[in-house]
Description:
By secondary structure, this protein is mainly alpha-helical. The chain is 57% helix and 5% strand. The chain is built from 10 helices and 4 strands. The strands form 2 sheets. The protein has a two-stranded antiparallel sheet with strand order 1-2. Keywords: Endonuclease, Hydrolase, Nuclease. InterPro entries: HNH, HNH_nuc. One of its GO terms (molecular function) is nucleic acid binding. This is HNH endonuclease.
Amino acid sequence: VIVTQQGERELQLVLTDEEFAAFKRAQDLLAHVVRNGDPAVVVARALAHYATHLEKRRFGAKEGKSENKRVPRGRHVPAALRRAVAERDEHCCSFVSADGHRCGETRGLQIDHITPLAHGGETTEDNLRLLCAQHNRHEAAKRIGVDEVAAKREANERARVHERAAKQREERLARERAVAASHVTTDPGSPTGDADTEAAEFAAARVRARRQSDIDTVAALRWMGISLDEAQLAAERTKDLADGPTGKRVMVARRFCSTRFGRKQDFRRKPDDARSASAPAGANDHAA
Length: 288
């Protein structure tokens, strides 16, 4: 961030293609308001809108919405109560040190029970406060001990790792079983592991076969006298035929070249380099 002489801040961004496409969409949608498409104005409006969205999502609905007056049970904090606590604490950490200094951190804020639920505390506005992550851990360590806090954090991390691994394993098995159900016929009495192995082997074999079909198609088109660039383009346009006979794919690719490049290719014609390589040894000398 660069601060200019006028007090404005210059922010330089590096965007991926996907992020830049999203920016262009926002620029197009705001064309009726930001007619010159000024990137600074577009980004400022987008950030203001998104900040409002995040605030509503994190701290609950706006005032005036009907609220449930019952005292919540457990650790769940209703949206309206989160918003009330956030507005009371001015959307910053409310921790005050021994010398009277307030933290005031605005990032990573968390709702903390002043009197823990385990000690009889309730989920009410008077028993809730905003703390940053560091001071939340500090207060928890004072109340229940450093070792117990560390043990809980380690247990939570292990649970998250286990959950991610289980989710990835389920997704992988679902993909393999989908392939097996589509292409592999197994004995009903065979173990599931055998079906998964056969599905993986079939998928790998299919990839190899499609790659070989690409190579054979390009080679056949080159033999007909079609340039390498045109042959590769024709193979790309006929890749949906890679699972079928190569001869049929070559015929479709040849018709594509005839239509696209405005000339017919002869099966008996060879590319220039192939003709020169197959010419008799003394032909060039005789021509000279």
